[in-house]
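Handout, section B. The chain below has 436 residues.
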Amino acid sequence: MHISIHYLFIKASLSGIAPQAGVRPALARDRRPCAYNARMTKTPTLPIEVRGSAKHPLGMSPAQFLRDYWQKRPLLIRNAFPNFTPPIEPNDLAGLACEESALSRLIVHDEKRDRWNVKVGPLSEDDFSKTPAANWTLLVQDVDKWDADVAALLESFRFLPSWRVDDIMISYAEPGGGVGAHVDQYDVFLLQGLGQRHWGISDDPAAPKDFRDDVELKQLKHFEPTHEWLLEPGDMLYLPPGVPHDGVAFGGPCMTFSVGMRAPSRAELTGDLADYLAERLPDELRYTDADLTPVKAPGEIDRATLVRLKQALPFAAALDDTLLTDWFGCFITRYRNAQVPAHPEKPLTEAALQKLLDGGAQMLRHPWARTAWAKGKVGATLFVSGHAYPAPAALAEQLCDQRVLAFDKKPSVADRAVLLALINDGHLLPQKPRRR
């Protein structure tokens, strides 16, 4: 049953829509065998296109799909949902997009100038009245949370853990409508619900994935499909994470149901786990160094420090030494810092720095600047108040060891670059020599 909210009947073009009759154009094009990414096994006998049925929406058993396709390679399932009838009407979807708490976007593409306009909901009747005859699409997320009939589609995906399922997003588009070529970082099942949509995908593992910087949407700069199809109602395209794809409404009004999965990034998992552990670890458990011996370089983060960190933080044992050092250097130099040095009002130029050094100026380390350094494969990294600076090892050691830096010989080009960055970040204060 549909949700009991007041839907707006936005536009005549959104009501009474039916798929256009006609023969499916011969757009299916497979330029080479499927070879999606490095994880997949190159088995030429596995088809990229199969035919489904009411009994087998995947065109095979769930176990076979998970074994051969899930997170490995794309799959087009023709007739996955035979005689499919959309569980929601386009005008109802438009009405939902006008609700305050619904997540919706209206995307219009100016094809001549290749400009994309994105309007974030809640939308209004006026927004829809201004849409052109073609090249626009409406996206509404989490429709399964609003509409029980849409949510019923998830019954066909019960072979997956329920906590992996994110939502059903529905897109309505007029001819030419879409969001541009892009990449999703999660698994998605794209079920054609109304009309036709042309899909192009690339299973080339070397396909470029750089984003355009001139549009609000995360669109690919370059997209060259290796496979192209025209999907009819009931057809379904499965895409694992990282597959470049582009879907465009063809011939008439079009609705696509996207069943997306939840795939937290490792950064999100790590951050949440760290927060979870931090809340539960007693404050008495501290970094300790009972095995400490006299240090030769006071500011250095040495190998023994890394060993102690891995003992104190068991999950840190999986990190390589460079990553662990970079994190710890930034952390320990900003830890319990009551103040942060202020940037100078006017940045110092390279020429001005050279003039100061030629005149015998010294460099005073700011009292609030905490420092440490670590050797690298090439040179070193200097850590100052939570920031990392690539630096020559000798200069990094000197900056950590001495509060006032005087130079017996002319600093190298690399030295001057570090000094200039530290001065302009407020960590070093140039001092001219006193006149006698």
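Note. Confidence is low (pLDDT under 50) at residues 1-28, 32-36. Compare this with the example in section A.
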